[in-house]
Amino acid sequence: MPPLPKPTKSVTLHDVAREAGVSLITASRALSNPGVVSDKTIARVQQAVEVTGYIPNLLAGGLKSRRSMTVAALVPAISVAQFLPTVQALTESLDAAGYQLILGQGGYDHSREEALLNTLISRRPDGIVMTGLVHSPAARERLRHLRIPVVETWDLSDRPVDMMVGFSHLKVGSAVAGYFLSKGWKRLGIATGDDHRASIRREGFVSTVGHEVPTAVVPAPSNMARGRQALAELLAKDPALEAVYCSSDQLAQGVLAEAQARGLRIPADLAVCGFGDADFAAHMEPALTSVHVDGAAIGRLAAQLLMQRCQGHEVVQRVVDVGFRIIERRSTLAGAG
Amino acid sequence: MPPLPKPTKSVTLHDVAREAGVSLITASRALSNPGVVSDKTIARVQQAVEVTGYIPNLLAGGLKSRRSMTVAALVPAISVAQFLPTVQALTESLDAAGYQLILGQGGYDHSREEALLNTLISRRPDGIVMTGLVHSPAARERLRHLRIPVVETWDLSDRPVDMMVGFSHLKVGSAVAGYFLSKGWKRLGIATGDDHRASIRREGFVSTVGHEVPTAVVPAPSNMARGRQALAELLAKDPALEAVYCSSDQLAQGVLAEAQARGLRIPADLAVCGFGDADFAAHMEPALTSVHVDGAAIGRLAAQLLMQRCQGHEVVQRVVDVGFRIIERRSTLAGAG
DNA sequence: CTGTTAGCGCCTTCAA
DNA sequence: TTGAAGGCGCTAACAG
């Protein structure tokens, strides 16, 4: 390895203390626990901070205090639009409490989960947020043993590692199927991503319908191109398809585009329901029916639970079901289109 | 403050060393610099790691070695779709080199820039990636003084803080205007976000057209709903509009939806060009002409420059222009629609 | 190849 | 209200 750039001796609290004419620890307290220091001293220290351009070293502080003031979040991929509001709300809520987010991309590959968790843990986060459940038993065991607050999100199960903010994907699938059946549609199809949660939704859908339905499974990332392919595939399986449930609004967008390209009228010839209620769903032509999930609320709640635990409070309700609801729009409004 | 949870005395390198029957530093070297340790010792240490469940503490290591193995990235908001491929590629490239990303959301508000940078700097990142330029003079000064590698992205200027990977927004606007003019369209309009880079593109557009053009400025976030409003606004200003340039594909999507809702044929009645070449652009009906920018390449290049500098190498080409190109599709193909 | 020594910058514990 | 030690977990720098 080539020589590293010479370490720039940065301004430390020591320099601030000297500048202010107080001891190191007094300077420390003036900044992090002002209540126990006289106002005069605080003013002197703050001025010294200005003069020296001091920026605290949270790495050093965290070493002794055992609070890194960071939270690690594990997402399959940043570009999965579904989780964006959650990550955004999480970042904002944590920031308001002085915490920073460390992001880890795990893909949908369970085998990478443990390795990635270890990497993140080596940064000693004060909490961990997972999008999805922790699947690897080794990882579950490790997390429990570390006694770090953990929030699993976007799903529910009866054996949380610690805390949980999500909803039932089985019920989502079931609800969409019930909705389709209530409309009198019989020839149903599914366009779905291949991830775990989407599969569970499919399971709920099928079990409510009562029999298997034509399904097009598309690999990640779930986007418009895949949606177009998926509809082509479904129509090949059943040219008389009446309604399609899509595991994401991006897929649904592709399904709609492909349907329109084939001259199918929505919803007269084909009804479409998406999942996620993306910001564009309401503004498409026709507007897209979708399953709404409050992703931002998931992020805020996760942050809230984490912060409570970081401050030593007990959390009574450790599993929060945020629910979901079907937003009916023109793409499934019989009589329209 | 309530009592903090009792610190769980975690497994340290000390425990590993004792378990392996070697000294602390030997254990350290076996893990981080195996080249200088005998194979037998390495094996013993690795086994001790397994037995004890040791996970290194990078905070402690970083304190001494002055390398935190983190990179801070400052984005306006995670949900700005434009930057997603960049952030994703950045995360992946850094991960491959053992670095983690710390994400800071700054909004488009320049006044928050310095505060956020200070927060991030207190984590002592080994490098900083900005989406956009550093605007605040105080922040520029501070970054220079810290001598941390900094990459400004998604833009170019003649006075980089340190390194730069981007393209000219002025040229983008100019190119789109030139393209419209070459098609013979005279009644032009702009639907644009209110951020700095979008404004510069507008400037380039107007200066090539040679006179002001009807403009609808929409606040962030740039999405389909705003696009629909924007077209309504533009048509109110000029009912005979022939072509619209949009500062994002999301806006363009809204413009297209609004046009279709009004019975306008694309592109016969109205031609539309977006910016960003989002993954859905090619699959819309009609397919959307857009300005393609390789966001993932920006992320990869930024990571590459940073890693070089972190390893003490000189970087010769400190400003990289990744360019752009107009992808022509049906939404501007005269004769179609 | 291995070990000893001395901190990194800050905060906790005790004492004044 | 302030200060003096000591140590968090690890790794550079130097010895053996």
From TrEMBL, chains A, B:
Query: What InterPro entries does the record tag this protein with?
Result: HTH_LacI (IPR000843), LacI/GalR-like_sensor (IPR046335), Lambda_DNA-bd_dom_sf (IPR010982), Peripla_BP_I (IPR028082)
Tell me which SMART domains the record gives: HTH_LACI (SM00354)
Q: Name one GO molecular function term.
A: DNA-binding transcription factor activity
Q: Which domain of life is it from?
A: Bacteria
PROSITE patterns linked: HTH_LACI_1, HTH_LACI_2
Q: What is the lineage of its organism?
A: Bacteria, Pseudomonadati, Pseudomonadota, Betaproteobacteria, Burkholderiales
Q: Does the keyword Ubl conjugation apply?
A: no
UniProt protein name: LacI family transcriptional regulator
Native species: Sphaerotilus hippei
Q: Which UniProt keywords apply?
A: DNA-binding, Transcription, Transcription regulation
HTH lacI-type domain sequence ranges: 11-65
